[in-house]
Amino acid sequence: MDLKLKDKVVIVTGASRGIGKAITLGFAAEGAKLSICGRTPETLEAAANEVKALGAEVFAKLADVTKVRDADAFVEATLDRYGRVDVLINNVGGSKWTPTPEISDEEWHEIIDLNLVSAARMSRGVIPTMQAQGGGVIITISSIYGREGGGHITYNAAKAAEISMSKSLAGELAKDNIRVNSVAPGSILFPGGGWERRQKADPGGIAAFVERDMPLGRFGKPEEVADVVVFLASERASLVTGACINVDGCQSKSNI
Question: What are the residue numbers of the active site?
């Protein structure tokens, strides 16, 4: 199936490892032109080299998109390099596991900013360009714990807000031929990720979790999320906007 993504300009935030890196490589395999950011020079450079090994063009910039100046500079630098932005993947996010009574106002703001506001900030940065060029695609990586309970309270709230924001943006931007969707991964295992750390710390407990909560009997892989994201960004998904797509091996329990 030709996804018609060759030479499309794709921004991926948080692209240096895990799901973000897999998404980056998925677009590279389709011949897209990548613009990627991360906060760690070594992992960002390694990701860029993997893109180049696939024969794709890549622009990599150190940036923390929770900071307005960094986010704006990253978008501007991408436009200077490529002249357009066809796809934005908002992948930056994360959580903390502070007991609820101990969560400070500052931590609430930190988690909301890391997840929701960084996605809103990057979207704001590319929307005018997408409007001027006649269309585009914005995809935000949320979580099944934005669709139902199960994660930490601050993470759940931030991820639910991402889904809601994506739905609202989809309605607002449909007239501009800009499609907006969110993707809700389940528990994804990759080197250096949170689930790997928990697995090493408590192998028996994590094995019980997988048996109890994962119908396929295993964690998901970053590439399995990436394949869905790349398809959603393509013209093959031209009628899909305002949707939140689970990629979770039936881990979630919600009917919607």
Answer: 155
